[in-house]
Structures are given as C-alpha cells and as structure tokens.
Amino acid sequence: MEKDFKSWIRLKEKLDNIATQVLFKEREIWWCALGCNVGQEANGKNEQFIRPILVFKKLTLNSFVGLPLTTKVKEGSWYVPISQRGRASRVMINQIRIFDSKRLYNKIGALDFNDWTKVKQRFKDFYCA
C-alpha cells in the first residue's frame, strides 16, 4: 500500500493553524490525527489520518503523551488488551509519542479504572524493567 504523505502534509498545515483549545484529561480516548508515518510507526486512517489514542499523561494545557490503539488481535509485551465501548482493543505502548491537542478530533470515551491500572503497570514493566 502506497502512503499518501502529500495529503498528510496538507492536513498537518491546517491542523497547525487551529486556534481553538481542546480540553482533555488522562485516561480519555480520542480520535486523533496521527498522520502518515514512516515504516512500522502506527498510521492514522482515512482522509483525516485518524486513529484512537489514549491520553496517557497530560504534559501541558495543549500537549500530552499518547498511546495509539488497535482493534487487531496482537500479542506481545507492548500490547495491552483493553475493552473500549464493549469492543476488544489493544493499547500499543511501544508507539508512545507526544501530541499537541490540535490533533484531537472528538472524544470516544475513557478507560475504566481496571484497564487504566493495567496499562500503567504494563507501561512501567515495559519501560522501567
């Protein structure tokens, strides 16, 4: 599949000019313009290049550490199984990245506390072991 970097760059320029502020919190899941990325990096889908993202750590009023989600069944220490709106998903802790809130489209929901605890523990085990 050929990647459409030119369309992503045009959309990225539009996103950069957004003036409105998005209010978000840790533990929330948002549709986020992840983009068209290189190699094995997680990509967004459709003309908006979006994918669900877990707000893992709020850094500033407008930036956060995000973890992309996938509905594909994948195994490994870097995939954390969760339930999102009654649907099985995986948090990809190996795809950690800093995002600006300008990339956020709309909130999907939030992780329940059991899944949130599981993601934080798996993250700690993966990066601090």
Characterization of this structure:
- With 129 residues, the chain is of the alpha+beta class.
- The chain has a single domain (5-128), classed as Roll (SH3 type barrels), CATH 2.30.30.
- 22% of the residues lie in helices and 36% in strands.
- It contains two helices and seven strands, in the order αβββββββα.
- It has helices spanning 5-16, 113-128; strands at 28-33, 50-58, 63-70, 79-84, 87-92, 97-100, 104-110.
- Strands 1, 2, 3, 4, 5, 6 and 7 form a seven-stranded antiparallel sheet that branches.
- β4 (79-84) and β5 (87-92) form a beta hairpin.
- The model has no long low-confidence stretch (mean pLDDT 88).
The ordered H/E elements are HEEEEEEEH
Tell me the span between the first and last alpha carbons. Answer: 36 Å
Q: Which sheet architecture does the biggest sheet show?
A: 7 strands, antiparallel
CATH class: Mainly Beta
Q: Estimate what percentage of residues fall within beta strands.
A: 35-45%
Number of domains: 1
Structural class by SSE content:
alpha+beta
What's the helical proportion of residues?
10-25%
Rg to the nearest angstrom? 14 Å
CATH topology: SH3 type barrels
